[in-house]
Amino acid sequence: MKKYLVFIFLLSLTVIGKAQLPPVFSSERSAQSRKEETVRRYLPPVRIVWQSDNAPEQIKNVATLLKKGTGQADLTGKNLCILSSKGKGKPGILLDFGKELHGGLQLVTDQSKGGKPIRIRVRFGESVAEAMSDIADTAKNATNDHAMRDEIISLPWLGKTEIGNTGFRFVRIDLVDENAELKLKEVNAIFIYRDIPYLGSFKCSDTLLNKIWMTGAYTVHLNMQDYLWDGIKRDRLAWVGDMHPETSTIAAVFGYNNVVPKTMDFARDITPLPSYMNGMVSYSMWWVLIQHDWYMHNGDLAYLKQQKPYLQQLLKHYMEKIDANNSEVLTDGARFLDWPSSENIPAIHAGLQSMLVMTLSTGAELLDLLKDPATAKQCREAVARLKKNVPDANHSKQAAALLSLSGLMPPQKANEMISENGVHDYSTFFGYYMLQAKAKAGDYQGGIDDIRNYWGPMLALGATTFWEDFNVDWLPNSSRIDELVPEGKKDIHGDYGAYCYKGFRHSLAHGWASGPTPWLTEHVLGLQVVAPGCRVIRVKPNLGDLTFAEGTFPTPYGIVKVKHVKLKSGKVETTITAPAGVKVLR
Fold this sequence. Notes:
This is Alpha-L-rhamnosidase. By secondary structure, the chain is an alpha+beta fold. The protein has helices at 2-19, 27-32, 55-58, 128-131, 207-223, 240-253, 259-269, 283-298, 301-306, 308-319, 345-369, 373-386, 397-405, 411-419, 431-440, 444-454, 456-460, 516-524, and strands at 39-43, 47-51, 59-60, 81-84, 92-109, 118-125, 150-155, 160-175, 181-193, 201-204, 527-531, 536-539, 548-555, 558-566, 572-577, 583-585. It has 18 helices and 16 strands. The strands form 3 sheets. Strands 1, 2, 3, 4, 5, 6, 7, 8 and 9 form a 9-stranded antiparallel beta sheet that branches. Strands 10-13-14-15 form a 4-stranded antiparallel beta sheet. A hairpin with a 2-residue loop joins strand 13 (548-555) and strand 14.
């Protein structure tokens, strides 16, 4: 009886407690709150890259910052890094956190003289040179665009401060005031990311290709924040066209993830028709193509049905943009493929003509699934008209790739244009479609070589993620991004770039550059989805000069595993393990 009364008493306290919760915890207030799908980890730096002049006198015990901390200030006064501006000049240090991260910085401080705050300047950088730059340096375009990466803050006495929300690998910290002393217990990177497993994998006899596959996967993983971003420094926006390589990578590496439909719906909901997503005539077309690819991988017909009203009206709008000469006339928005092709007006026309063919063909397939045969028929009739007008690629590899993928240009002819002068005139975004066009022409070895020769040099320059743009013409005499630029060398981050990505504004972690990751999975491992929801997968490897390739591929039913070994005879021996529910074609 006594135990029962104690239980009733404790239960009454619980009920009373719930009734007395402050309004912020009420069910109504809770419904108004927003929960992010990311986690936070705290990482110490791995290297001290640079210390200011007079470091022996002004900087003490800096190596202690490399140790794992607790995130808690204490009164022991031990294991502190001390920066002092009591001598000549003001001290500064440059820290390397080992690889590109998304997030900010946590600083744990000890006691300061008089208990007064100490001012410091913090500079984040995707390269060493960017972290060492000044916002006032207009020549190299150092900016605080999209994310604050250069600011002055005050640190408390015996406290913990968090600053920043950007993409970075390097952080420079400087004392601002004269005659000041700062005692730092810890400096940790705040790593903000989705804690999800890498279900897909790729391993072959070329370690460079292995590293490229993983770097593409990691680049996209960083951009899978609350929404799917273009870049973690800039642009921290949902650019729908740029998403297509990213969603292809997500399907190959992570399988289903909520960030894709969430971002696709966001783009739809903020773009009432007849407006185009992101203001670009091609980006609503990419939305249609992503919807198709996402459905093929995940087989979620209920989600696809939610898109029906918007999809129908969007496709009808596009069908109205064909003139009497069977030419696209998409003149009511920005006409854009990618930045390197943006001044080639005939190439843009050829690319948009191709994309309209791809969009309406794909749209017809989706409408068949959505039980709208009438509009599907109209789409196919429009495609037949468009195919009567084949524009010239005007020496553009971007246009040639799209002409091939849309069926407007023979694959071999397109491949000849793309292969001319190697990987010169490649781009990080449309490089994916150039690779796809090479695969369509059966030039798998050419695709493998182009991946090595275009994405490989970024890694050789110290990259841990792939960049917004890259040009092999930048390579001669350029320094690595993880070192101070030596005298007489070019700063590949600050000295190059164009359009919206000049100098340090150039993003070095851009998801649209991840194309080699899904391409290697699809064409080297040979894993191609044939039926919606991965119910049927075709395995057709293309090893080229590789001696083996193996990996995994996520499906709604589980993981498909493949291993291909090239025998001395040249024949490829394949082993496949597939979960129940997945039919494999050879």
